[in-house]
Specification:
By secondary structure, the protein is of the alpha+beta class. It has 2 helices and 6 strands; from the N terminus they run βαββαβββ. Strands 2-3-1-6 form a 4-stranded antiparallel β-sheet, with helices on one face.
């Protein structure tokens, strides 16, 4: 079973290929991806690497965490599961709601909704 690793504080010069190469020194790499900004297509400064086993992943974490890459100390750790993102408005699973009151908002009697 593969193990996913988070790699943070990456210099913007790091590519998928260089990430794969550096982690490959510690074992078989299933995938390596530097996260890119969709608007500018520039690195966001972090990425993910999937190693084929937990032993390879632990070896890579021990060997690379804190290592200086182009003058930046990278952080390497096990990736946490992605948290559910809130809907726009950020108020629970139902999104933003100003009120549950029926007398607030647009009604049938003018702008205020009051009759």
């Amino acid at each position: 079973m593969s193990t996913k690793i988070f790699v943070g504080n990456l210099p913007f010069s790091v590519t998928d290929a260089s990430l794969r190469s550096n982690f490959g020194e510690f074992g078989k790499v299933s995938s390596a991806k530097v996260m890119m900004d969709r608007d500018t297509n520039k690195s966001k400064g972090f990425g993910f690497v999937e190693m084929e086993s937990a032993e390879f992943a632990q070896a890579a974490i021990a060997g690379l965490n804190g290592m200086s890459v182009d003058g930046r100390a990278i952080s390497v750790s096990l990736a946490r599961p992605r948290e559910d993102r809130a809907t726009p408005g950020g108020n629970g699973s139902h999104g933003y709601r100003a009120s549950n009151r029926s007398d607030v908002g647009y009604g049938t009697d003018g702008f205020g909704g009051r009759g």
